[in-house]
Amino acid sequence: MPSAEKRLWFFIRKRQLGDFHFRRQHTIGPYIADFACVEAMLVIELDGDSHGSDKSAIYDERRNAFMEAQGWIVLRFWNSEIYENIDGVLATILDAAENGARELAIAKSERP
To answer: Does pTM top 0.85 for this prediction?
Structure first.
């Protein structure tokens, strides 16, 4: 696991972030997400230097579109953000997880 992933995992594992359970290397269709929180339908992807190319951008857009079509919220962060602004990254993840979990709870309660 790349070091940026290890660093983020340190902060989100074992329900340390808002009591949400995150998984590493979670399979969604033909793709493997870096991290996923099933209860909030949230995917976290970390992008390194290799994601700066046009080819990678197209692939990432395709991945995002597939996951979003399955109902997932996709957050992408540059590896550098994990080192330079971990507090901001964690706040963004927590906000998205809380919103995703809330939306799922509302949707479930509205089912007949």
So the answer is: yes
- Whole-angstrom distance, CA of residue 49 vs CA of residue 6: 17
Domain residue ranges of the chain, discontinuous segments joined by +: 3-106
Say which residues have a Cβ less than 8 Å from residue 89's Cβ, sequence separation at least 6.
Answer: 8, 77, 81, 82
Name the CATH architecture for the domain at 3-106: 3-Layer(aba) Sandwich (3.40)
**pLDDT one digit per residue (tens) for the chain, 112 residues:** 679 999 999 999 999 999 999 999 999 999 999 999 999 999 999 998 665 566 788 999 999 999 999 999 999 999 999 999 999 999 999 999 999 888 888 877 776 6
